Amino acid sequence: MADLQDDLHTAAEVGRVDEPYPQEAVVVAPETYEPVSDPDAEPLTRAHAVLTAHPVADGYSGLPWALRRLPWYDLDLGESAVDADVPRLRKGQVGAVFWSLHLPEADDGGRAVGATLAQLDLAKAVVAAHDEGLRPARSAGEVADARNCGRVAVLFGPAGAAALGDSLGVLRSLHTLGLRVLTLTGVSWAGAAGLTRFGEEVVREMNRVGMIANLSYASDPVIRRVLAVSKAPVLFSRSAAHALRPHPANLPDELLAEVGRAKGLCMVPLTAEQSGPTVRDVADHLDHVRTVAGPECVGLSGTYDTGGTHPQELADTSCYPRLIAELLGRGWDETEVALLAWGNVQRVLREARFTAHVAQQRRPPSTAAIEDLDG
């Protein structure tokens, strides 16, 4: 029998949208940051000092897919065919990166499940083959451990929602294999009309296992419903400010404000198409998101190795200090930069894990099937 929570339980019981988890279980104490640079130094010098203490957590990289077309590569020594080898990650003071498992083809059903598993297998093999520079990570603690060992933490995801094959069992299996972010687009249960009942159950099960919802490119009804259903923070892995550049994935101010109220994370992409052709344009988007959503709700998304064009002075992952220098020159204080670069991603990872811990005490694994909820 399917686990039909909506039919079998009242609104006050487990897994319901309108039942908050105990606040003490999901609220994370704010980070405290001490100044680490000379306020009289040049912005680029200050940027390097701040990033030494609070490196960049990059919200989106297409490297696994880009490597598929190369007959041979060595990320440790340097690889000119990609944007993000280990030397350039270190030069850019990147401490963590999310590797996308999105599928360029319109795979669906079993093909999408298999293709995602193949990409995940490749990504793990790449990390294992470059363990002097890279380390896999599944949690905020493992991200910090990798950084303390001088490695770049690699988190797997986002993957497309089609990778689930409409199965909550596959969702749990992918999480066990290391997937940490899922994009809620491109499926029948998360489309232009919003989330279906099965879609809401997917979000609740993601909360229960600790998988984070990515809402870039999702429809407005999906975004609003996920913000209502999810007990854990959501992120937008590739979304800038629509008020500055009307791209389909960029967020209007009303949604940015909702993201701020929900303590989600809008990660501004370093692409000319979404954010503009110069480093100043990217900084304008970061300024705007910080103002509308709040400094604790803005992050960075390199979007390197995805085939897009990057702004001037931000050609590859070595260029992050230039962007941070631009922000410091505009008056961002070190606390705000530390949150932008590192702290906000760590908060989202911690809160997702805490939410999962609470949910697992209150709710067994869901056995709901799409044909029972949406049929």
From TrEMBL:
InterPro entries found in the cross-reference section = Metal_Hydrolase (IPR032466), Pept_M19 (IPR008257)
Protein EC: 3.4.13.19
Gene3D superfamilies to which the protein is assigned, alphabetical? Metal-dependent hydrolases (3.20.20.140)
Pfam families reported for this sequence: Peptidase_M19
Which keywords does UniProt give here?
Dipeptidase, Hydrolase, Protease
Where are the annotated coiled coils located? none
Specify where the region named Disordered lies, as residue ranges.
1-21
Q: Name one GO molecular function term.
A: dipeptidase activity
SUPFAM superfamilies reported in the protein's UniProt record: Metallo-dependent hydrolases
**Catalytic class of the enzyme:** hydrolase
- Which residues lie in Basic and acidic residues bias regions? 1-19
> Which PROSITE patterns does UniProt cross-reference here?
RENAL_DIPEPTIDASE_2
In Swiss-Prot or TrEMBL terms, this protein is called Dipeptidase
Q: Which organism is it from?
A: Streptomyces atrovirens
Q: What is this organism's lineage?
A: Bacteria, Bacillati, Actinomycetota, Actinomycetes, Kitasatosporales
